[in-house]
Structures are given as structure tokens and as C-alpha cells.
Amino acid sequence: MIKKGMRRQIVLHYILVVFMALLLVEVIFLLAIRTYYYDSVYQKINSYITAADEYYQTYLVPGGAESSSQMQGLLKHFKMDLTELEILSLKGDVITSTTGFQPDRTITTSDVPEALGGDFGRWVGRQAGTNESVMAVSKVLTIHGRDTYVLRYMTSVERINSDLFNITLVSAAIGAAVMAIVVLFSFGLANSIVKPLNNITAVSAQMAKGRFNMRIKGDYKYEIGDLASTLNYMAQEIVRSNQIKDDFISSISHELRTPLTSIKGWSETLVSGGYDPEETKLGMSIISKESDRLIGLVEEILDFSKLQQNEMKLNIGVVNVKVLLQETILNVWAKAEKKRIRLLLECDEQLHVKGDANRLKQVFLNLVDNAIKFSHEDSSIVLSALPHNSHEAAIAVRDSGIGISESHLERVRDRFFQVDALNGGTGLGLAISQQLVELHNGKLMLDSELGSGTQVTVILPVTDRLPDAEPAPELQPDPDAEI
């Protein structure tokens, strides 16, 4: 007995389907053989009756002295081997027959009434007295337009039934052989499915215990092969995610420790006293700066957590793109000045998009900040905004910095991933930007070449509705900046 499981289900279903199909074919085959044999006998008797009817309706005279001898001639000329020919009255009484037995008996089988109805009568059953299987075919004999007698042929079908029984046995034997072969093949088929699944299950159980270095081995095909490849890929991604997470923990620990060390050091220094106002002011400035840095790191982690839990709420409105980019430039102006980087703005005055102004500003601050971080000194960063098509705008941040290699370009939007860990940061900025853009039903596209710079393009839906009047921010005049 096969134990419960997929193997058992496959074997039983396969056997059931083949058995039902085989049974249906054999039943149809046996019925067709039986019909063929019986119809062959019927057609042969039918031809004899037809010939007798056509001949004697011309020459046989009803009644009279010669009718008895004419009936005997009919019996003699149209008798069949192994078949009894009877001449009946219209009431079904036997007048004479080729056997000569029981001439006074009355036939009550269904073939006689059918014949009297004007058609050939046919009956298959068991003969009374002998219990022998027989077939009887009857036809009214018409002489000079008058129904006179009933011709009835009766033959045994025992031999036919015996042959049909033998054919049935042979068919059953063939069916049993086919089912035996099917059982063997069904086990092979079940094993070809179940064994790989057992292997996959065993490896998956190891993965569930944290052994993500395990891999499903074997050249499996079709859906099972896809399942094995998917699980292997999942394990690989988990290992990679764990590595990124470990790198993030290490990086964020360093990022947090550096400002905390500065804050702690200057706090202790200031508490000890004895410093002039300038030194005290410097210490307080450093504490404030490092506190802001800590707040920025914490807010970035909180934003990422909200996005992961789908708890980020957007205040959708109409945003003037030029005003948004000007505010972005004002926020990063000082940082760009330190590296003598020029910030250039190319934007249509009447370009408006639908979105949350604060969150979109967060996106572009991150993009421009990254551009400044990886740009060379005395270079330029271009912020451009142009219609992309009739219902979208393309806002791009383009630099001529160090660029991103092709291998890193595929992973740079992954959470916690950093192209250059030495530059600091959490590795969440671009991942957060990507998700914020997608929340605005937009797209973020990266185009970069190592050593030639990077362009990040944000596609956002535009709107024709103008925002409430708001003054554009005034930029600080600077000979090295162009807007």
C-alpha cells in the first residue's frame, strides 16, 4: 500500500484515468463486435426472406390443393444451414417447418407482431424448452397483394455468444496487461515528480533553519526547475540582503558614533569651563551641527520604515517645478560652494506637477546632494525640467562626476547599498527617493558611465491647474552660479 502523499495521488489518478478510458474503449469495441456479428446473421436471413417473398408472391397460389406442396417447395428451396424455417399463419400458429417438430405450436415472440405490422421482425432471446440463445427474423409473405403467411427463420447464436465471450476474455487480458504497464509507468512518473520535490523540500527546510548557503542541485525541467531556480535565487538574495544589512549596521554605527563622539567631547570640554567666548561658540556650533546630522540620519531611517510599512502619507497638491528646484538649490548652495561647484537651472516657468512639495523636495535634495558628493571640484551640476510628453514632465539632475560602474548601476537603488562606503551615509537615500517617486505615480531612471558622470531623471505627472500665487525664493547673488 502506497503511503499518503503526492506519489499516491498521482498513481491513483493516472490509473483511474487510464482505466476509465480503457473500459470505455473496450465496451465500445465489444458492442461494435456484437452488433457486427448479429447484424451479419440478420442481413443474411433478411436476404433469404426477401428472395422468397419476391419469388413466391408471383407463383404461389393462396389456398387450394397445391398449397401444401408449394409450402414444402418453399421450405426446400429457401432453407438455410443450421437455421430453422417456419411458415406461420397470420395468428402466429406454426403451419409447417423444416424440422417438422411441434407443427401445432403458436409463436408469441415479438418478431411476429413486428412482421404483421409490415416490417421485418427481429427477436433475440432464449428459446423455450431448450433455453438456447436464438435469433428469429420474420416477414409476412404477400401473394397477389394479400398477406397470407408469415415466414420465420430462427437460428442459434450460441456459437456467436461463445466467440464474443472469448473476445471479451482476450480484451480483458489485454486491458489487464495495459493496466499493469500503466501502473509501472505511473510509479515512474510519480517518482520523477516527487523525488525532485522531496529534494527541494529537504533543502528548503535547511534554508528555513538559516542555512542560506544551501543550494538545490539537479538539472530539473519545466515548473520544478523554475521552482528550484527561484528558491536558489531567494537564498542568494537573502544572503546578499543580510550582507547589505550587516554593512548598513556597521556603517550606521560609524555614522552615529562620529557625531556622538564630537558632541560628547565638546560637552565635556565646555562643562569643564575656562574657555573664552570664541572657543565656547565654536564648541556649541559643532554640537548643533552634529545634532542636526544625527536628526537627519534618524529621519532618513524613519522615512524608510514608513515606506516599508506603507504608512507614508502624501499631501498632494500642485507644485511649481521651477520654485521647487530653486528651493533645492538654496538648501545645497553652501555645500556646493565648498567644492566650487556651479548649480545651473534650466526650467520652464509654467511647468507644474501633481505631488507633495515637501516629499518631492526631499527627493531632489537627495539627488543633488549625491551629485555634489561625487562631483569633481570646479565642475557643474545641471538641474533641468522639460515636458516629457503631453501628460508627464522629465526633471533631471546631471553631473560630470566620477559616474557609476555598470555592475553598481544595477544595485545602486537597493536599500543599504553604497557605491563608496567611505563617503558616509546610510545607503537609503536613493531607495527612499525611488519609493517616493513611485508613490507619486512616477518613475526614477538612472543613466551613468564610469568617469563621465551621472544623470538621474524623474518622470512625474503634470497638471494644467495653477497653484495659488506664491513668491519665488530669492537666490543669493553669486558670480559662479547660473540660474
TrEMBL record:
Is Cell membrane among this UniProt entry's keywords? yes
**CDD domains attached here?**
HAMP, HisKA
Could you state one GO cellular component term attached to this entry? plasma membrane
What is the topology of this protein in the membrane according to its UniProt annotation? Multi-pass membrane protein
Sequence ranges assigned to domain Histidine kinase in this UniProt record:
251-464
Q: Which Pfam families match?
A: HAMP, HATPase_c, HisKA
Give the keywords, sorted: ATP-binding, Cell membrane, Kinase, Membrane, Nucleotide-binding, Phosphoprotein, Transferase, Transmembrane, Transmembrane helix, Two-component regulatory system
Which superkingdom, per the lineage?
A: Bacteria
Q: What residue stretches are annotated with the HAMP domain?
A: 191-243
UniProt-annotated location(s): Cell membrane
| Catalyzed chemical reaction(s) | ATP + protein L-histidine = ADP + protein N-phospho-L-histidine
Q: What residues form the membrane-spanning segments?
A: 12-33, 164-190
Q: Which GO terms describe its molecular function?
A: ATP binding; phosphorelay sensor kinase activity
Q: What is this protein called?
A: histidine kinase
Write down the species.
Paenibacillus donghaensis
